């Protein structure tokens, strides 16, 4: 059995670790709030752009551009989002595992040399280089400082390569942020743009809370649903658009904007998912430290009581012998 001094040393060590994990959890919670605000600020633009595209799609389904035309796949580009740092649970491990499965499947069809990897995040960049993949550039700074202009430049570069026939398909691999306790690993085709499936994808996000327990989230969703029903539905927008000069020209301008939005949305979702995963991981670590402290304190008290009892027995035994 360990001595009282050793147990006290372990208690001090666990308490120190608990302070660190608790502080990291609070920092991750604050960063998650900022990431949720960034997504919320992007949503009005996304809503209006999708409304216009849906209206155009309903008006003229035959309209096509170079960005939504499929062709035989001979070369593929993968844009993969991870984090720059660790201590976020299985966030990076899941992304890297999905990347490896995707690359292995594509390599059997078109060969590994025909797969380009665009890593957005240091963790996936290091893993891709270690595995010998064809890594295109370094975009780690986007994770720490999400920037619309850099996303547009990357989307334009991918669009140029697709238009010139250098790549035939571009896919995004990232975590879709649904709530603080739920991030869904997603693989989505970036180019060619499947407009119908993109406009019908899952848009559900909980941007109002950082609570991660399922019971609390269910309660908030239930109350929020009641509030929406009480407030009533918002009147739809007027769809009487005047299209100048013609539908194809307008779609040629709108589809690149849709591509820019898709890439920026994936970046914001990935950043928010990273902070949420780190917050959950640090909360779990703090809870584990609390449980370990409880066990150590119990062990310390038992050992202390046993030592006191032994001393009393020695004193009583000595007095009896005298």
Q: Which architecture per CATH? A: 3-Layer(aba) Sandwich
Per the principal axes of the C-alpha atoms, what is the gross shape? elongated
Q: Spans with pLDDT under 50 lasting ≥5 residues?
A: 227-236
- What's the pLDDT, averaged over the residues? 83
- One letter per element, helices H and strands E, the order comes to HEHEHEHHEEHHH
Helix content: 55-70%
Give the end-to-end Cα distance, rounded to a whole number of Å.
32 Å
Beta-strand segment tally? 5
CATH topology: Pyruvate Kinase, Chain: A, domain 1
CATH homologous superfamily - what is it? ATP synthase, F1 complex, gamma subunit
Main sheet record = 5 strands, mixed
Radius of gyration: 28 Å
For the largest beta sheet, what order do the strands appear in spatially?
A: 3-2-1-4-5
Task: Pick out its properties.
alpha/beta; Pyruvate Kinase, Chain: A, domain 1; elongated
Secondary-structure map:
Layout: H1 4-59, E1 76-81, H2 91-110, E2 115-120, H3 122-130, E3 134-135, H4 141-144, H5 148-163, E4 169-179, E5 182-191, H6 195-199, H7 214-231, H8 247-321
Parallel strand pairs: 1-2, 1-4, 2-3
Antiparallel strand pairs: 4-5
Helix pairs in contact: 1-8, 5-8
What does this entry show, briefly?
It is built from eight helices and five strands.
What does this 3D model show about the protein?
There is one protein chain. By secondary structure, the chain is α/β, with parallel strands linked by helices. It has one domain: ATP synthase, F1 complex, gamma subunit (Pyruvate Kinase, Chain: A, domain 1, 3-Layer(aba) Sandwich), CATH 3.40.1380. Helix content is 63%, strand content 11%. It has 8 helices and 5 strands, in the order H-E-H-E-H-E-H-H-E-E-H-H-H. It has a 5-stranded mixed sheet with strand order 3-2-1-4-5, with helices on both faces. A hairpin with a 2-residue loop joins strand 4 (169-179) and strand 5 (182-191). Helix 1 (4-59) runs antiparallel to helix 8 and helix 5 (148-163) packs across helix 8 (247-321). The two termini are 32 Å apart. The relative contact order is 0.18.
